[in-house]
Amino acid sequence: MSTPPPPPPSPSSSSNDSRTTSTEAVTGIIISTVIGVVIIAVAYFIIRYCIIRLRLRSSNSSNEEEQVTARMGTIRSPSSIAVTTMNSRIGTEPVEKFLKEIMKEKPMRFTPQDLVDFTQNYGKVLGSGGFGIVYKGQFLNGLPMAVKVLNSNMNKRAEEQFMAEVGTIGRTYHINLVKLYGFCFDKTVNALVYEYMENGSLDKYLFEDGNHKIEWGKLHEIAIGTAKGIRYLHEECQQKIVHYDIKPANVLLAANFTPKVADFGLAKFCDRERSFETFTGGRGTPGYAAPELWLPISVTHKCDVYSFGMLLFEILGRRRNLELMGAAAVATGEQSQEEVEWFPKLVWERFEKGEMRSIVAACGIGEKEKEKAERVCQVALWCVQYQPEARPTMGRVVRMLEGEEEIERPPNPFQYMTPFPQSSSSSWTMTMSTATADSSSRERGKAGDESEITLLGIERI
Ligand SMILES: Nc1ncnc2c1ncn2[C@@H]1O[C@H](COP(=O)(O)OP(=O)(O)OP(=O)(O)O)[C@@H](O)[C@H]1O
Ligand SMILES: [Mg+2]
């Protein structure tokens, strides 16, 4: 007996299978849609949460942001974003912190009209110097600035250097350097826009009578801060910068009297109008300029060390190195012979005789500061050494001033100098004999074995 063949698959079972398959497919689609929606929803909530947190964090500065938006209309600069960052932070974080944040930014380019707006049509003059006139101004958010409008006698080469240097200056950041916010370079106006320094320049506190007195301990801190600023220019910043014009007028004081070196990088591209007129092709300011700036000797960063030494003497004595009313003042008793004398030389003479204490006491510096003052005295004598190589680096100057490095006894910085009787009792003569002068000086002294040069650096002008 044969077994019946298996029944052919019924049409109903085949349709059941295909129904099951399509049900699974639909379920799959639904599940993946649900998962997708859940993922999107979670991502949405995470993003929203982050945005809310960010908004909460910056809510304190919303007012400033509004002001910035308003100001953006006046600055047509591609780097105005830097200002946005800067301004939105002000008020919530210390100024130093936000300056650090913008340090990587290039300085902004302003138009002449921007400067007119900032300075309210150049309404307030802060002062003037060899490079031009300085005006007070402010950004729309109230951040003050100092606008230095440069003398208009730039030649083509100087103009090119201006652009190159502005880039360099704008990228230097140090607590002891005045920050460059931006510049204006135009056919009609060349100007630099700096951070505003509330307490003006150091010369006011050293030389002016009246209410501008700072106690000597603070002056010592100012000396160290200034030295650190110059050290940064010489040794630490990307492109080394020689200042060429270190002097109390170029040390500006912030609201808390933090010293900041101003005008670095300017000497290269600016023709000065006043301070340089006694020099032929030289740089610097009489009284502070190193000998090599007016002699055909190669000039290095050590010329700044010399000028800093002169500044140290003035900090020590809280007087100009040459305070001269003339021989008549001595005759009438208005001034003593010592006061008329050039202070650095006077300091050396006392130091040589082992009377450093008496200088310190004569400068009115109290017991508490005596040790620091004696250090300042010796460091100053090292800085003004005639030979640039004999002067310390600014790094060593800082260490010596801070008492981290022992100070060797300085040699006589003024051995090439003898008093020179002229009509003005302030004139000295530097005598360089071929036996003692360095090789380049010797070359310069071809005219004779011994040559005399009036030391313009200590002439009163
Ligand atoms: N950033 C600033 N903030 C506040 N005041 C400033 C600023 N820059 C300059 N000044 C003021 O303007 C005055 C003139 O400065 P300026 O640099 O033009 O001349 P100077 O320092 O006397 O000579 P030099 O041309 O050799 O630098 C300073 O003495 C100071 O009082
Ligand atoms: Mg200056």
TrEMBL record:
Membrane topology: Single-pass type I membrane protein
Domain Protein kinase: 120-415
Pfam families in the cross-refs: PK_Tyr_Ser-Thr
Species, as recorded: Canna indica (Indian-shot)
Compositionally biased intervals (Basic and acidic residues): 440-449
TM stretches of this protein: 25-47
Subcellular compartments: Membrane
Domain of life: Eukaryota
Protein name according to UniProt: Protein kinase domain-containing protein
Region described as Disordered: spans on this chain: 1-20, 409-453
